[in-house]
């Protein structure tokens, strides 16, 4: 049976993926890199800020990289609302914890500038046993490091755990470490490599009863 679940954050628990993509687009465009929001929305989910800059502004030095990130943060905070939680997020998390399951977050979001703000505004910290971001490990997604660290902190073997995320960058590392991989798309997209595809977190509960291995 599943003993612990590690969630991605943006687009999985909170409706911030679009806000973040818009913020990155503005930041890159203001600094001379013409990248559209749709491209960023599709291809940066789960990635750390360092890896996004490396991908779309590979020639940026430390100073330029810092300016891009600063504009990203400014625009993200400007677009943030008080209703970023998906409606089912807290009820599902409470139900999981009532069942005795351990819960954690593994994200690429920068802790000081984005992650801490989102956690404070949503109150998700009260429903999580651990929160890991790319700054806590050697390599961000799609490397499995953030998930391995989250499961380590939960004292759960990856093979006894579940990973829930809205991108290949969540599902691929979950499969690599032997966890049950759930792909969530509220637009109804599916990912063949996932062990399960869902359209909202409320569909997660039956999978928590699975006998693994």
CATH class of the largest domain: Alpha Beta
**Per CATH, which architecture of the largest domain?**
3-Layer(aba) Sandwich
Main β sheet profile: 6 strands, parallel
How would you name the CATH homologous superfamily of the largest domain? HAD superfamily/HAD-like
- Please tally the β strands and state the result: 6
Q: Give the uncertain stretches in residue-range form.
A: none
- Give the radius of gyration: 17 Å
Q: How many helices does DSSP assign?
A: 8
What's the structural domain tally? 2
Question: Which geometry do the CA atoms define?
Answer: globular
Topology summary:
Blueprint lengths: L3 E4 L9 H14 L6 H7 L5 H8 L5 H18 L9 H10 L3 E6 L3 H12 L7 E4 L11 H10 L6 E5 L2 H9 L3 E5 L11 E3 L15
Parallel strand pairs: 1-2, 1-4, 2-3, 4-5, 5-6
Helix pairs in contact: 1-2, 1-4
